[in-house]
Amino acid sequence: MRKITEQYATARDEFEIAAEETEKKTVYAADDRAAAAEELEKLRELYEGILKDSSPEIVEEIKQRAGQRVRELSEAIKGLEASAIESD
């Protein structure tokens, strides 16, 4: 769970940077959105790998503790990309 928490924090930080840069429409915005998406993909791979390789009890705990956060961050990054496209 610690690895997921750490990767979630990294992905969330990248998302926050990307959101700020996108809002300001800086030249770094596209690269920051790409970095956020990359970190999210690492988080998804880690999450899915742990679910696949863990006992049913651990899977339930991880789903309860991290599943919703992973989905919310995924939707936030999709929304950020959509808003960037709309504002171009």
Total number of helices: 3
* Rounded mean pLDDT score: 95
- E-strand count: 0
From the helix content, strand content and strand pairing, which structural class follows?
mainly alpha
Low-confidence stretches: none
The SSE string, one letter per element, is HHH
Beta-strand percent range: under 5%
Principal-axes shape call: elongated
Name the helicity range: over 70%
What does this structure look like?
This protein has 88 residues and is mostly helical. Helix content is 91%, strand content 0%. It has three helices and no strands. It has helices spanning 2-24, 29-53, 56-87. Helix 2 runs antiparallel to helix 3 (56-87). The termini are far apart. The model has no long low-confidence stretch (mean pLDDT 95).
Short description:
The chain contains three helices and no strands. With 88 residues, the chain is mostly helical. It has helices at 2-24, 29-53, 56-87.
List keywords for this structure.
mainly alpha; elongated; 88 residues
